[in-house]
Input
Amino acid sequence: MKKLAHLLAAALLALATAAAHAEDAGIAGEVKKIDEGAGKITLKHGPAKSLGMDEGMTMAYRVKDPAMLKQVKVGDKVKFEAEEAASGYTVTKLQKSK
Output
């Protein structure tokens, strides 16, 4: 029974650690421009390993959902996730940083 309790505790710790890393998976950035008509946002960000970008840069991204653009304004610090497609990079998740 004691071993089972230790295994359960280890599993819960592993899940908590994975959840914490998932929250940190976003790319930190700053909103530089919002173009609602084009469905794009310009973000200044550091390295984006998930996109194969080893250096920080400022670039325009399409947004998966145009409603995302109403949640932020120029100057806001954000965390975002993006994916690469044939048509370019698209922000799939966007939230203000605390």
Q: What stands out?
A: The mean pLDDT is 84.
